[in-house]
Design brief:
Blueprint lengths: L3 E7 L5 E2 L15 E8 L5 H8 L2 H4 L10 H10 L3 E7 L2 E9 L2 E6 L8 H10 L14 H9 L12
Antiparallel strand pairs: 1-2, 1-3, 3-4, 4-5, 5-6
Length: 161
């Protein structure tokens, strides 16, 4: 099934708009929303996903620092057994949300950082479901904050050497 998840995020207070009755944010009262969409990954997205995962600023925070070729990348996505969604921000590809065996991971392009996109994408995806977890390296404070803002509780860090 090809699901699309969509929500609005206020550009000013970064809160998710849940009341869609007007264009005014129920938290800050301003009339300004960003649109966040999660659209299932297709083979047309593979080049974008490769550029995302090889971006030096994004790679710095990935659990695996192993370098890979585009062919290895294609092989991974052709055999991936989880769920994966491209995150769109106002119609532009901004990142990736992935679930595999209840583990969530998220990658956002640097020019979309600090806009509330990760928090909105995770909150929209999990809704009221429980039982998810995320592994985050200790230097990735932004991701830690994103997951905590999405209702996750801190348990422990993954330490790397």
């Amino acid at each position: 099934m090809n699901k699309t998840y969509k929500t609005k995020i206020c550009k000013h207070c970064k809160q998710e708009e849940k009341h869609y009755l007007s264009n005014f944010c129920c938290k800050c009262g301003r009339n300004s929303f960003d649109i966040i969409e999660l659209i299932k990954v297709t083979k047309e997205d593979y080049q974008f996903l490769y550029s995302l995962s090889t971006n030096s600023k994004v790679r710095k925070y990935l659990l695996s620092q192993k370098k890979f070729t585009y062919q290895q990348h294609l092989r991974y996505w052709r055999t991936f057994m989880g769920l994966a969604y491209v995150i769109y921000y106002n119609g532009t590809k901004a990142g990736l949300l992935r679930e595999q065996e209840r583990e969530l991971s998220i990658q956002i392009l640097p020019n979309f950082w600090n806009k509330g996109i990760g928090t909105a994408a995770i909150a929209k995806y999990i809704k009221n479901r429980k039982g998810f977890y995320a592994r985050i390296i200790n230097v990735n404070l932004a991701s830690l904050k994103v997951f905590q803002n999405s209702g996750f509780e801190y348990s422990h860090c993954v330490l790397k050497r």
